[in-house]
Amino acid sequence: MCREAWSALLIADEGWGHAVRAGEVAAPFPTVGLDTLAVEAARLLAGRNLPGLIVVDGVGRPLTVLPGTQVLRMAVPAYCQDDPALARVIDEAEADLLLSGLEGRTVGQCLPEPPRELPVVDPDATVLEIAALMARTRSPLVAVVDEAGTMRGAVTLDALLDRMLGS
Amino acid sequence: MCREAWSALLIADEGWGHAVRAGEVAAPFPTVGLDTLAVEAARLLAGRNLPGLIVVDGVGRPLTVLPGTQVLRMAVPAYCQDDPALARVIDEAEADLLLSGLEGRTVGQCLPEPPRELPVVDPDATVLEIAALMARTRSPLVAVVDEAGTMRGAVTLDALLDRMLGS
């Protein structure tokens, strides 16, 4: 990709007259809380074609950023995730029985282990920094937070690529 | 999420009268080759808001499935991926210099290490199996291949969630 992409970025930067920062690329993004029903969180993801979900605490500080695949993980029994053959042979009635223990659960109750690194940046982060963070954490979604840790918006992979490629 | 989501799936299944299989959920999906220019691959991803890219060989067999974040990885120098502080201090001119070595590179030249498990299924895979595979491999994109290994379509996370949630 690389030179043309970054050349486009440079040209864009020259127009701006400064390096592009997270605060300029960030856009509003819906959030969920620990007490949001997991099924509602999944509907939000699916209904708006989001790349993931941002889980915030009561004052809007990101607790975790879940890529879409990890939201999906909440619906899949752990032993099916690890055993493809088992996932194949379980028919729907059995799946329903197995999954009934999750009925009515909240996001907080379904969350996977916390990630080693939270994909969160401050508004001064550069485009290169956001790109590196997305690549490293495998998250197509990065939250932008202020000094108090409160979420001020998010940068999606699509938005970042559009900015990098000038499209 | 879980019971309501799977209940919706069950209802959908009852309508179909059988378990939903990959072959029914799969849709056409663009592919790239090892000799595709990396920047063209990135433009394809960005321009069509794809969740990732499928790299195929000369006869259409998937070689790797790259989530969007791993396409982005091709553009980020390795040492910036691992050192957030360095990514911050590099200004654009330096970044351009550092990245110039990648100029004109192909997808094949930029590919990361091959994944341990390729997110590929046969047309008989169940929805649960696809969901488990996406969660396990962290890939929002699964290729569907025939017996010869030739790609016949793909299932995206969005399409799978829509099917699961009946939206």
Molecular structure report:
The structure is a homodimer of 167-residue chains. The first copy, chain A, is an alpha/beta fold and 167 residues long. The first copy, chain A, has one domain: CBS-domain, CATH 3.10.580.10. Chain A contains 10 helices and 6 strands. The first copy, chain A, has helices at residues 2-16, 22-25, 38-47, 68-73, 78-82, 84-89, 92-99, 107-110, 127-137, 157-165; strands at 31-32, 52-56, 62-67, 120-121, 141-145, 151-156. In chain A, strands 1-2-3 form a 3-stranded mixed beta sheet. In chain A, helix 9 (127-137) links the parallel strand 4 (120-121) and strand 5 (141-145). The longest helix of chain A is centred in the N-terminal third of the chain and has 15 residues, at 2-16. Mean pLDDT of chain A is 80; it is low at 1-17 and 97-101. At the A-B interface, helix 1, helix 3, helix 4, helix 5 and helix 6 of A face helix 1, helix 3, helix 4, helix 5 and helix 6 of B.
